[in-house]
Amino acid sequence: MNYIRSSILLLSVSVGVASAEEIIGEGLARPFASANADGWSGVSILETAIIDSSTDPDGNGDLVEITEVSMYAAAGRFDGSNHLIPILLNSADQVAWIGPELTPTENGLNVFEISGEDTVDTSNETYRLGVWQWRDNTDDDAGGTVAFGTGGGGMFQHNVNGNLGANGIAIGDSFPAANAGHSAAPGGRDYHIDVVAVRTNNTDSDGDGLPDAWETANGLDPNDNGDVDPDNGAAGDPDNDNLSNLDERSARTDPQEPDTDMDGLLDGAETNTGTWASATDTGTDPLESDTDMDGLLDGAETNTGTWASATDTGTDPLESDTDGDGLSDGVENPDLAFNPLAPAQQPGTDPNLVDSDGDGKTDAEELTAGTDPTDGNDVADFVLVGDGAERPFTNAGADGWSGVSILNSAIIDNATVPGAGNTLEVTEVSMYAATGRAQGSNHIIPLLVNSSDEIAWIGPQLTPTQDGYNVFPIEGADLVDVSTETYRLAVWQWRDGVDDANGGTVAFGNGGGGMFQHNVAGTLGAGGVAIGDIMSAGHSAGPGGRDYHIDIALRNPEPPTTNPLRISADRANETLTIRWDSVGGELYNLRSVTDPSLGARGSWPIYTDLENIEATPPENTLTLPMPPEPERYFVVESFPAPPESVFFADFEDGLGEWTVGNDGVAGTDWQIGGPTVVGPVSAFGGANCAGTNLAANYGEDANVWLLSPPIDLTAAGSATLSYAQWVDVEGLQYDYGTITILDASDGATLAVLDDDMDDNTNDWEDFTTALPVEAVGKTIQIEFRLLSDDFPDTNFSGWYLDDVRVTVP
């Protein structure tokens, strides 16, 4: 085997009788080293990864076939959503060969055997290796799949919309270097992808249209065209799968195995059209046992629409979520009971029914609400209604004006709470106060606006006590009549004694469902709104625009139809025992009355000082003296426990137990201290922060990391990461940061919080996010990594961090 050039993707070529093999790539040779991938989706062409008449000089003939592709998947780009297709460009910069779609299954080296693809004729043409990379249903965002380092032979990149998927390229597409979106000279980007090229001999001794080498490799006689044994000919079907040998070669299936991918379907039924026609024309891929990647074999997905068993699911083998309920077909199995301890893995639902229990909420909505999607009587204690992003909210700016903002997609009607009657009760308001808007001078009042744009419900005045997340329990507010009316959530915001100046309180981002704003003078305060006031638009934003970080919790004010409490009496000892399912990180109050008509359950008094009861999962038990009254009603109220800090770093004592490293070109490092020439004017809090080159811009080809000490989350049910950051990078997927959660025991990647941080702040901003479930129950480390491209004179101040904190629950 002659090694010519190598990078991290390998393409192998061989058609007939193979001679030698030659690895074609550019830059580094195998084994490849870990590196990062592009943020964009697009086609990258490698200038020195050449296939021409000199390739594999020991071979015979002009034809070369791709038999293997090898590539190195960057961290976080192997979850089944990132894909690549190897291509060859001719000397006219046109796509002349397209390989199969490939999906890496693990971080690092992935090797794909390729067979049956078209050959390329090198008699009068020179080809360059290229690769089309994308991420499902997104454009640019984490679109790269193949890792790259430095030391390449030169490359250029063309943008292709990632939403197009495999159809983003076609034979004849032109990708001229002169119109490249990005390029790198020799010594720059080295894509870790190679191709193995083998020059082949297409001898067909019996003239049946099947090359001798293919017949020999597949147990057929290369000297019998079917006259002696019909199974040896082009029309033969030795495995009785309804595909001829000629068809099997074209489909790249095994002519001696009726079910090449062992998915329970004959190769002849798997027509690879992408469209189901019948049980004998399924449209599935005969080389992929699970065409739609939902965890079910194609043969089990019978597309009848009716569940029979785990081997006859009735689902569509070409659709990963047949019923469109937000759950993958592979996790829905109605023969398994709902598992409240692992609902996402075992919901017990039917993959053919969007609402398995028929209670008006999709199966996925029920899992989000924490209810049993197989029990129509199990309804949520409350339903959150908001607009756009869900809790936990992240930091953003607030309006400068005073006024009422009406959120068009935050709808409250008689379908909002399953099983509710004609009235709903508002029990809680949650909002995110923008920086500087929680000093006692900024206030909000939640409102409901009816279909006539009239204010129909007014909540209490609320004043956030801290920048960031604030939760306000609501008691005794008027009930909301949803018998015939539909409402939208709105919020009246103002600042004491002024009109407009910093009048907004609630932070907003992008991704909302549409809103409009009605101007109200801030000097009017709480008296600025009244029932019946008409709301008309002064400022508006369509869907995708402003998303106000506020929501309300609503519930049925009547006692639930099913009692979640398990109550037993011991007459001999005159005790009462109350049990309920509990969750880590929650606190509980026991409320009780003798007359349930005295008000909403949330307003019932605490019973015998039994409040702020800590959870003892999976069940809490209270044993009480028997109440003296002949009749008493109990309810358990749950709410999140206040967060407890388990890790904090403000860098005032230097690096401490943090570690830093450089996997790129020298000249950029994470440093601890006070900003000087570039970057922010000062640290976020105190004198010190962490930053990339405190006294200079970051350099070219930077790849530097800042790693936290171990953080113990072994006893946590959930956790939240917060930090302050100041960002000034080139962006546009050229220079960016990543935030990765690692297992402290072995350094393995548990989750990637952000693999394409390129949002410039040019000011200190708070950032808060829930740590993913993969981090819970482990000791973790948090890695902040900055990467830059090889373009000169396009580097900026960099990335600065301060006040890094992890809280539980």
Which oligomerization state do the chains in this entry correspond to? single chain
Largest sheet: 6 strands, mixed
From the alpha-carbon coordinates, what is the Rg to the nearest angstrom? 32 Å
Stretches where pLDDT falls below 50 for ≥5 residues?
1-20
Structural class: mainly beta
What portion of residues belong to β-strands?
25-35%
Total beta strands: 45
Would you give the CATH topology of the largest domain?
Jelly Rolls
Q: What level of helicity do the residues show?
A: under 10%
Structural account:
- The protein starts with a strand and ends with a strand.
- The protein has three helices and 45 strands.
- The strands form ten sheets. Strands 1, 2, 4, 7, 8 and 14 form a six-stranded mixed beta sheet that branches.
- It folds into five domains: 2-199, Jelly Rolls (Sandwich), CATH 2.60.120; 210-257, no CATH class; 384-555, Jelly Rolls, CATH 2.60.120; 566-640; 645-808, Jelly Rolls (Sandwich).
- The model is unreliable at 1-20 (pLDDT under 50).
- It is an all-beta fold and 809 residues long.
- A hairpin with a 5-residue loop joins strand 5 and strand 6 (95-98).
- It is globular and about 100 Å long.
